[in-house]
């Protein structure tokens, strides 16, 4: 292993992680500089609905596609979302496995699992790029950051896919690019829309707290659904 | 463009945005990933396919870009990269007004469908408030807000008018049951229930007050209505003006405290319930010491406790239920109305989607007061119309006065032939009264005795409530009323029906009242028909009176009174008659 690859796998990643953590801390500090709301009303809604249930439901909603019409009616799109995010997790875990626990990747089954996860995410990423360019609605709302973040992740998936076997003996190019991209990704995300996962716990916490207190969460709907829902 | 070239209003909007932001709003503004999952959840989008400017995320971005430019570091450092952008001119603020008031009813349907928990409706309301604070708002919002600030209720109902209406309803009830003990108590101290209403009930739908009074009476309730501070609606919710919201809510809370009431019962109104029950204590920084509940819950409780008996066989027409956005999506009030409907109706048919997923009536968020967006509103109402039609019901029930107006308008527009009613009306109708006294037959005067008997009057106005109001007065006085809801329809009906008189609003969709007036006066077959202008915009009066050839025979400013209307129209007919006689001589 060359010094450059070693540096990329260790020092560069550690610096990038520290940088990301610092920026995230500043981001959270910034968020908490804004005032918090105080709820003076007495709770509304049924007895089954509480603040605590609302928060839990809100956090878990993303894993319950049947609870939101937007995910319920777009099962394929939701499946893409799941695949894409599993790919992100796999590619991040990979960046720790290679330098700190390379023996795990000696199992061909593990390698295949990682490659399938990341490969599918890469395909979904390509599909998302096409959608962002071709859908009139999505194009109208997209910023350069939206395009760049998506392309960055998709390319990163591509290199991660080939980096999974960790065969630096057969050439370091793929691994070097993967780790460089990972470092760039870690340093870029706090400034981009990819940082949404930083906000997710907070936005869903406050929304769930309010909706739970007011008896809206957990959502209740009639189950005898028929075809009048638009988009079916 | 530099900061120094920014208009005063734009400067204030940016400055005040910083004061309004809270953590929940900031995460909603910063956390959007532009995934587009919200797009098809909005009725505006569904009714305007192919137009991305109606998408919730697009609309939200018009506010978000200002936030990013001034309050988010990425937007400040790399504005083009994240599409952040400031506002500089009043024209840009006008464009923002068109979006936040004219393309969103704050129904919150997109909010519950956002995987990130972005609550667009909350910061859309904030943006409305910012624009209102610098005087940029639809005219209707300005008028209604002014009434609520100055007169104490959003329809400018005077205290005498309110008390007269209660007195009238009390007399009706006493007459119906031949019982002088049926009362609508005013300002009674230490009651268990203080009942608050929507001024629309006084103005256009007093039967809901009588129905509620009937239910309270037969439930044996110790109740009262306040002589002041009785309006539970709150235009602050729609205008985004927290100060107005707080002032209106406090007025009501303080009155209940003054009366020593134990529970404030809020009549059926979605935004009124949300404002009074949920948002008011926050806006007004008021820790409310008494209970508050919707009249839906009160009525249901009376039935469950056996305080009133109902017979569902009295309501056999198929009904469906429309969930008000504010009740269902912001206050969790969606099971109780269904439970009550099952008790008082024999044929209840669910609407889909329903509860918190229901579509907006399209009249929410104050949309009914913004006549400049009427065409847009009615186009988006196609979604609701299809939903209603699908139920096969003849009556749509809703616990919201705003929805009553919105639904009535779209039902007429899409010719659905349905009626809109409220739970209080159905409960009242199903109410079993022991040893019911025979209802005395009202003596209706002979047609010849009525003021406008034999007269055909065309009423042209774009406000359905106003048409209902004026038609009721004219019909009670023997007139045959023809209704036109826009200028083109008014002209067409004038040509077909050749009415004896036309009441004409000036500001209407399609041809304006001024254009209709011109066309009628130029048309030899129509130019003898007297026209009475009735407008809420007195500043437009000169458009008519500066007319080179002819002037209208009558003119009235809104709001009008029954006596004023009759007096004016009588005068017009008298003058017309005298002119005719002198010509014949």
Word description of this protein:
The complex is a heterodimer of chains A (232) and B (585). Chain A is built from nine helices and no strands. With 232 residues, chain A is mainly alpha-helical. Chain A has a domain of 161 residues: Fumarate Reductase Cytochrome B subunit (Up-down Bundle). In chain A, α2 runs antiparallel to α9. Chain B folds into three domains: 135 residues, Orthogonal Bundle (Fumarate Reductase Iron-sulfur Protein, Chain B, domain 2), CATH 1.10.1060; 279 residues, no CATH class; 138 residues, Rossmann fold. In chain B, 49% of the residues lie in helices and 9% in strands. Chain B is built from 26 helices and 13 strands. A five-stranded parallel sheet of chain B has the order 10-9-11-12-13, with helices on both faces. In chain B, β11, α24 and β12 form a beta-alpha-beta unit. In chain B, α9 crosses α11, α13 crosses α14 and α14 crosses α16. Chain B starts with 7 loop residues before the first helix and ends with a helix. Chains A and B meet through α1, α3, α6, α7 and α9 of A and α2, α4, α14, α16 and α19 of B.
Features:
heterodimer; A: 232 residues; mainly alpha; Fumarate Reductase Cytochrome B subunit; globular; disordered C terminus; B: 585 residues; alpha/beta; Fumarate Reductase Iron-sulfur Protein, Chain B, domain 2; Rossmann fold; 3 domains; 5-stranded parallel beta sheet; 4-stranded parallel beta sheet
Content-based structural category of chain A:
mainly alpha
Cα-based radius of gyration of chain A, to the nearest Å: 21 Å
| Helical residue percent band of chain B | 40-55%
Find the biggest chain interface.
Answer: A-B, 67 and 75 residues
Number of helices of chain A: 9
End-to-end separation of chain A in angstroms reads 55 Å
- Mean pLDDT level of chain A: 93
Q: How many H/I helical runs of chain B?
A: 26
Reading side by side through the largest sheet of chain B, how are the strands ordered?
10-9-11-12-13
Which fold name is given in CATH as the topology of the domain at 3-20 and 71-213 in chain A? Fumarate Reductase Cytochrome B subunit
Overall morphology of chain B: globular
Q: What is the residue-mean pLDDT of chain B, rounded to a whole number?
A: 91
Main pleated sheet of chain B: 5 strands, parallel
DSSP strand (E) fraction of chain A? under 5%
Instruction: State the total count of DSSP E strands of chain B.
Output: 13
């Amino acid at each position: 292993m060359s010094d450059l690859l070693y540096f990329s796998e260790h020092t560069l990643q550690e610096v990038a992680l520290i940088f990301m953590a610092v920026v995230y801390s500043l981001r959270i500090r910034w968020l908490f500089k804004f005032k918090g709301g105080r709820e003076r009303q007495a709770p509304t809604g049924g007895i089954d609905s509480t603040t605590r249930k609302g928060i839990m439901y809100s956090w878990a909603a993303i894993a319950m596609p049947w609870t939101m019409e937007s995910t319920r009616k777009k099962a394929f799109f939701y499946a893409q979302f799941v695949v894409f995010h599993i790919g992100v997790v796999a590619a991040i875990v990979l960046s720790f496995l290679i330098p700190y626990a390379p023996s795990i990747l000696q199992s061909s089954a593990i390698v295949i699992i990682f490659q399938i996860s990341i490969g599918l995410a890469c395909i979904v990423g390509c599909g998302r790029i096409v959608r962002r360019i071709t859908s009139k609605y999505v194009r109208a709302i997209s910023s350069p950051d939206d395009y760049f973040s998506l392309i960055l992740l998709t390319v990163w998936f591509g290199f991660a896919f080939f980096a999974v076997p960790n065969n630096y003996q057969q050439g370091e190019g793929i691994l070097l690019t993967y780790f460089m991209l990972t470092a760039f990704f870690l340093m870029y995300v706090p400034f981009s829309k990819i940082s949404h996962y930083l906000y997710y716990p907070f936005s869903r916490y406050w929304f769930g707290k309010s909706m739970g207190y007011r008896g809206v969460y957990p959502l209740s709907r009639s189950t005898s659904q028929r075809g009048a829902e638009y988009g079916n | 463009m530099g900061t120094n070239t920014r208009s005063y209003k734009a400067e204030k909007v940016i400055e005040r945005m910083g004061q309004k932001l809270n953590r929940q709003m900031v995460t909603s503004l910063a956390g959007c990933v532009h995934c587009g999952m919200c797009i098809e959840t909005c009725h505006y989008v569904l009714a305007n396919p192919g137009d991305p400017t109606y998408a919730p995320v697009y609309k939200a971005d018009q506010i978000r870009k200002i936030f990013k430019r001034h309050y988010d570091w990425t937007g400040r450092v790399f504005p083009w990269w994240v599409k952040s952008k400031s506002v500089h001119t009043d024209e840009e603020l006008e464009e923002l007004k068109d979006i936040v008031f004219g393309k969103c009813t704050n129904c919150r349907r997109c909010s519950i469908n956002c995987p990130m928990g972005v609550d667009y409706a909350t910061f859309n309301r904030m943006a409305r408030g910012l624009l209102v604070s610098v005087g940029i708002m639809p005219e209707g919002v300005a008028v209604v807000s002014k009434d609520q600030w100055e007169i104490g209720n959003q329809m400018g109902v005077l205290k005498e008018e309110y008390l007269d209406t209660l007195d009238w309803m009390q007399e009706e009830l006493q007459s119906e049951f031949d019982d002088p003990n049926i009362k609508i108590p005013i300002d009674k101290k230490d009651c268990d229930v203080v009942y608050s209403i929507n001024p629309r009930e006084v103005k256009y739908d007093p039967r809901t007050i009588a129905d509620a009074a009937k239910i309270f009476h037969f439930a044996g309730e110790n109740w009262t209505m306040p002589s002041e501070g009785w309006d539970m609606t709150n235009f602050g919710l729609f205008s985004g003006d927290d100060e107005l919201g707080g002032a209106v809510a406090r007025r009501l809370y303080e009155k209940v405290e003054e009366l020593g009431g134990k529970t404030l019962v809020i009549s059926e109104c979605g935004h009124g319930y949300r404002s009074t029950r949920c948002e008011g204590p926050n806006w007004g920084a008021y820790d409310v010491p008494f209970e508050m509940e919707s009249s839906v819950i009160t009525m249901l409780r009376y039935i469950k406790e056996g305080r009133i008996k109902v017979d569902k066989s009295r309501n056999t027409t198929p009904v469906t239920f429309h969930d008000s956005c504010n009740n269902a999506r912001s206050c969790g009030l969606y099971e109780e109305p269904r439970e009550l409907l099952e008790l008082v109706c024999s044929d209840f048919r669910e609407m889909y989607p329903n509860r918190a997923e229901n579509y907006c009536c399209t009249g929410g968020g104050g949309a009914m007061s913004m006549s400049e967006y009427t065409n847009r509103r009615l186009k988006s109402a196609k979604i609701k119309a299809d939903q209603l039609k699908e139920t096969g019901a003849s009556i749509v029930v809703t616990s919201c006065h705003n929805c009553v107006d919105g639904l009535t308008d779209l039902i007429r527009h899409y010719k659905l032939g349905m009626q809109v009613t409220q739970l209080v009306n159905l409960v009242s109708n199903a109410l079993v009264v022991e040893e019911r006294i025979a209802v005395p037959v009202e003596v209706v005067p002979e047609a010849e005795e009525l003021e406008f008997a034999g007269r055909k009057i065309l009423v042209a106005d774009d406000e359905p409530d106003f048409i209902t109001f004026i038609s009721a007065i004219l019909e009670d006085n023997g007139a045959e009323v023809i209704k036109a809801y826009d200028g083109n329809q008014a002209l067409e009906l004038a040509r077909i029906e050749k009415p004896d008189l036309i009441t004409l609003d000036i500001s209407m969709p399609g041809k304006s009242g001024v254009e209709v007036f011109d066309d009628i006066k130029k048309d030899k077959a129509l130019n003898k028909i007297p026209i009475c202008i009735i407008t809420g915009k007195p500043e437009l009066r000169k458009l008519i009176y500066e007319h080179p050839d002819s002037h209208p025979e009558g003119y009235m400013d809104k709001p009008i009174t029954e006596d004023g209307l009759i007096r004016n129209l009588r005068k017009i007919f008298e003058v017309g008659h005298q002119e005719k006689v002198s010509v014949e001589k």
